[in-house]
Amino acid sequence: MSYPSDKNTRYKNTFVFKIVKYNRFLIEQIFKNQYIIFLMILVSLAFNKQGYGFSLKNLAIVAVSGGMDSCVTAAIAAKDYELAFAHFNYGQRTEARELKAFHEIADFYHVSKRLVIDYLHLSKIGGSSLTDKSMDVAKADLNNTEIPTSYVPFRNANILTACVSWAEVIDAKAIFIGAVFEDSSGYPDCRPDFFKSFEQTIDLGTKPKTKIKIETPIINLSKTEIITKGIELNAPLQLTWSCYKNEDEACGVCDSCALRLRGFQKLEKEDPIDYVERPNYL
């Protein structure tokens, strides 16, 4: 049987030995923690890829109508955020078709957090050819500078208000909305100043710790640029619905169809959805 020497015993009781031993323990813990963090990242990537809703990214709400603009906006948001989708039924003519597009786009992006809100008061208020069946949906006039009959009074404010309420509950850091300044000559609630003002309202009307940004990433893009961005990001444009009038085949002659078709025509690309007719808007 061997016994430790007095020299070894004295060394192990020294202050230096204890410091070295403690530092070794710290180093082992650091490497162990780094390994755990690495595993968490791998698990996060795997879960996110499979659409289980687990992510290390901050959460953002995207207002998704089912149209092309909101779809491309979702594609942009997906680069930096975990997504939650909000959709609004307000008695519009194509309500069922837009809701179908919403869920198909949400499936494409594996979005588990979905909120569908019924804003029936907008159809009761009326004043828009989208919600009032006694009004006709006007044929496209891309040179018109007046507010079109399709304008739903203060719709974007209603949408943002609900999104802010939901954002406070689920701790979302941003709200994305696919407003386009190209439409602002007709729709006053699509102007950049409106969203800047609304963000200030959020700061004043929410809890002190709440910080929510309003993101309008395509607001200064033309329809051609939006389509190009969508193709670049592999956005599912074939799942979107823009028509104000029809739910089976897009009419091709309302303002929304005309803006969309003209965008594709400028790019000399085929719009992937079906139309009753495809006028040349160039």
Give the total of beta strands: 5
Shape: globular
Biggest sheet features: 5 strands, parallel
Number of domains: 1
Q: What percent of the residues sit in helical stretches (DSSP H or I)?
A: 40-55%
Can you tell me the residue ranges where pLDDT is under 50 for at least 5 consecutive residues?
A: none
CATH topology: Rossmann fold
Q: CATH homologous superfamily?
A: HUPs
Rg over alpha carbons:
27 Å
Detailed description of the structure:
The protein is an alpha/beta fold. It has one domain: 3-Layer(aba) Sandwich (Rossmann fold), CATH 3.40.50.620. The chain contains nine helices and five strands, in the order ααβαβαβααβαβαα. It has a five-stranded parallel beta sheet, sandwiched between helices. Helix 4 links the parallel strand 2 and strand 3.
Topology:
Layout: H1 6-12, H2 15-50, E1 59-63, H3 68-77, E2 82-89, H4 95-108, E3 113-118, H5 120-125, H6 155-170, E4 174-177, H7 192-205, E5 213-215, H8 223-232, H9 255-267
Parallel strand pairs: 1-2, 1-4, 2-3, 4-5
